[in-house]
Amino acid sequence: MEYERKVQRAKGKVWRWNEKRATGIIETVDGSHVWFGLDSLGEHKNFGDVSLDDPVEVEYEAVQQGSHDLRAVKVTWP
Question: How many CA atoms are closer than 13 Å to the CA of 39, on its beta-carbon side?
């Protein structure tokens, strides 16, 4: 039996970005850190355009990704 994951939304900023790996961390306004990868950027954002401190909105779930407890499902730039 499959269970539904609860997706949450938050505003934040790109806190860490590794262009070579196309992965990073978003720091939400409440201080949580959300891991994100290229697949969460969607088709309208080139990973070469991602910059530190970019304001973003993130949809995320409580799923382990490496050493992080939160993983982005979708990242958008307002």
Answer: 5
